[in-house]
Design a protein that fits this description.
With about 325 residues, the protein is α/β, with parallel strands linked by helices. It is built from 5 helices and 8 strands. The strands form 2 sheets. Strands 1-4-3-5-2-8 form a 6-stranded mixed β-sheet, covered by helices on one side. A hairpin with a 5-residue loop joins strand 3 and strand 4.
């Protein structure tokens, strides 16, 4: 009988303590997206506003205040396999040595690289090195503007330096760089261009993974505040976005192309299904994460560097 009572007591603690901890730790408010330094691009950060989605509730972050309208706890989403900068042989001497960070990722902006679609996936590292050179040397962005890039075979590549698992501030959507992640589809996706299923799934899996720590529904809405009047919104203006939006939603551009824009509703639903555990993130073999994917492993086959047509727009 004593053993039975002890087991009941442990079960009661296991159920009640985790629920009580957020209440004990809850502050009066929460700052959800903040740059890690005054030198971060565009100065003041994009600001998270309470709306139909929860504020970020990352591990180690404050919980929303008592009485908050929404308190969604983060879900665990598997980390997709990501080819590191070392694997695609980025020359780290070209970039700004200081990465900038936000407190979390509250939205994802989708781009295309405006480069040819007829590439061999084995040659993508060469394309990345050329984009890297163009965006650091010619455009003075300090590094690749995008946080991640995805090829037509569904391979995900680390873009801007600072750590794939961190909220690195990129240079991809002027006015809304801080507290967001930029994912670029490698290619050009104008009207009528097919978007490969493997690419769509990789984008969805990556977006679901990046949004999960903040408790953001990939199919939901978020509010961001513009930090730059060159965006579609005057500086300081609060605007509502899809949690997974296109570049053109925040800036006057055709990016990511009509074809990819048309596929965003399906990508949002797929990301939400992955976050909810309804579809495995590793649906395609290239997305099956492994220790080698995370920390190194053999680099993909490289080709000699050569010119690539077109560059992305911020």
């Amino acid at each position: 009988m004593r053993l039975y009572r002890m087991r009941l007591y442990r079960i009661a603690l296991w159920v009640t303590v985790p629920m009580a901890l957020p209440l004990l730790a809850a502050p009066a408010g929460v700052t959800a997206v903040r740059a890690a330094g005054d030198t971060a691009p565009e100065g003041a950060p994009s600001v998270w506003r309470p709306g139909t989605t929860a504020r970020p509730a990352d591990t180690g972050r404050p919980f929303p205040a008592l009485g908050a309208a929404s308190m969604a706890l983060p879900r665990t989403v598997p980390r997709p396999a990501i080819v590191s900068r070392a694997q695609w042989r980025a020359d780290e001497t070209k970039r700004d040595s200081h990465a900038h960070y936000a407190e979390g990722v509250g939205a994802v902006f989708i781009h295309h690289t405006d480069t040819p679609n007829g590439y061999d996936c084995a040659d993508v590292p060469r394309t990345l090195r050329n984009l890297y050179t163009g965006q650091t040397r010619d455009r003075s962005w300090g590094d690749l503007g995008y946080n991640f890039l995805v090829d037509k075979c569904g391979t995900i590549y680390e873009g801007r330096a600072g750590g794939a698992d961190r909220a690195v501030v990129g240079s991809h959507t002027i006015g809304f760089n801080q507290g967001t992640t930029g994912i670029a589809a490698i290619g050009t996706f104008g009207p009528g261009t097919p978007v490969p299923a493997a690419m769509e799934h990789a984008i969805a899996a990556l977006a679901a993974w990046k949004l999960a720590p903040s408790g953001v529904d990939p199919a939901g809405k978020v509010r961001l505040v513009s930090t730059n009047g060159k965006s579609r919104y005057a500086k300081g203006t609060s605007a509502e976005f899809d949690a997974i939006s296109g570049h053109r939603d925040g800036f006057a551009t055709n990016c990511p192309g009509d074809a990819l824009i048309a596929r965003l509703p399906a990508i949002r639903r797929l990301a939400a299904d992955i976050r909810g555990g309804n579809i495995p993130a590793a649906r395609f073999p290239r997305l099956a994460a492994s220790p080698a994917d995370a920390v190194g492993g053999p680099p993909p086959r490289m080709s000699p560097a050569g010119p690539v047509r077109g560059q992305s727009r911020p």
